[in-house]
Amino acid sequence: MTDTENIDIKKAFAEEKLGWRGYVEWEKYPEKKELATRILNKSKFTPIPEFQFVPLPDTNPVLIGHRWKEYHEVLGLKHIVDFSWETVQKEKPDLIHLLDFPYNGETTREQLMEGKITSNKYHFIRNHGGVPDIDEDVFELEVGGLVKNPVKIPMKDLKDPSKFPQAEVTVTLQCSGTRRIEQIREYPGDGDELINAPWGEGAIGTAVYRGVPLKKVLKIACGGILPECKHLEFIGADTYFKKNNVFNYAVSVPWRKVRANEEVLLAWEMNGEPLPKIHGYPLRVVVTGHIGARSCKWLYRVNALAEPSMGPVQRQEYLYFTPQVGKQNSKYSNGFSIQQMPVSSAIIFPLDKKVIVHDGKITLKGWAYSGGGNWVQRVEVSNDGGSVWYAVNEENMTQKHYHAWRLWSIDIPTDAEGWLEFCVRTWDSSNNTEPTFVRSAWNWDLHVTSSCHRIKIYSVNRTRPETAKRLKLLEEHGEDIYNLSHPPEFSLEPLDEYLAQYRKYPREPED
Ligand code: MTE
């Protein structure tokens, strides 16, 4: 109960459909939204933690979403928070937990490079709210707005191949926050109330999704769209907060995208298994080649619209600003909405700042991806910061797909020793490549870090006789080259050797 209005919160924000746990309908009830806003306005919440100007905690979960838990709690929705974490522990115990609630989890390096397909247990997760828990038997999808016949389709009909033709598509989903940590390290940016997670290279993954193309549903079930329809809006059953207003997750894509048949799929299967709860069970959208945000999970309503969705995730999030836009001048209208993803890549092995002992070649491995139906055509790697480039051989890349990444590996010739800067850039099928430096494309909301990915490697080339000799000496003394900054206890050059050399080549000229 709130003190002033004498309202029974449990009743006001109750779940209304049997078997649809963790789902509160907001979009149909403006008065319910207003009540939630009044309650939120009266409450005090924990401030967003500062993690851009200070080091990230060395913990797992890395960040704790106190504020979003509190938003749910004051509306009597704590069970949603609890169920989210229970689901993480069941379905995603081994991710890097970047944010505990809303849950954001990143795939580890080993799992990223496991193979072309990321297994369901290790595919990254990006949530904006809790995880709804909806029974498939009672689930139905609503399709309405600017269609000829609005319909409700039970799940069993949607999955019936005699009613709707099915398709399987191999799709890489990428969060626009992938590699955000590089932008933060260069210049800190916006600290949104829904924490802009400090993702590394693992907010990307690839799966085979099975479902029915949305185009077919619109045609077969609804008899087609009306001429005014230009966008399709997707509504998810989770609850989203923005500046003390409450929403169901809502995004949209242009009709032109949906028209391309299998490019927008309503999916219930991921890698041959039912969608995991945390990935949107029982039904999600998979929008190929677009920012992951459009692939709405826990989809329960599709609206055909004349304009893009007015939902805050569509209008106010995932905007791309120019570098001179920031807290002083950013507006929702001076950023553009990110849809198709650009070409990008990452070096996954070796790790930044590694010491590598080698025989003239260093092995690098990583991923490369391009959105919008462009495929990865060439991956190039440099060991001198980007002047000389070596192409990855075709046989060292995984199979091409229109909508999926390619994993690659290369043995790059490396003669030089000491700190070297390695970087990768990818060319896609439309000859697009990546910006050179993080700063070339830094943006206030820290999205789409698609610049050449750079790492620093300490190269130790043991084909060089002097280096081989030193490595042997270190070994004889039980000392380790990998422990680079640790000073050895013994002298690196005996006095007699030093003097012989010094006398052969004295420092001062003779006259
Ligand atoms: N759909 C709903 N309903 N709620 C969400 O929070 N997150 C989106 C998208 N779909 C989200 C959603 C974002 S930002 C991304 S990157 C992808 O889901 C991530 O998909 P995954 O968590 O299945 O990997």
TrEMBL record:
Cofactor: Mo-molybdopterin
Keywords: Metal-binding, Molybdenum, Oxidoreductase
Protein name: Sulfite oxidase
Domain Oxidoreductase molybdopterin-binding: 128-311
PANTHER family, sorted: SULFITE OXIDASE (PTHR19372:SF6), SULFITE REDUCTASE (PTHR19372)
Pfam families in the record: Mo-co_dimer (PF03404), Oxidored_molyb (PF00174)
UniProt keyword Manganese, yes or no: no
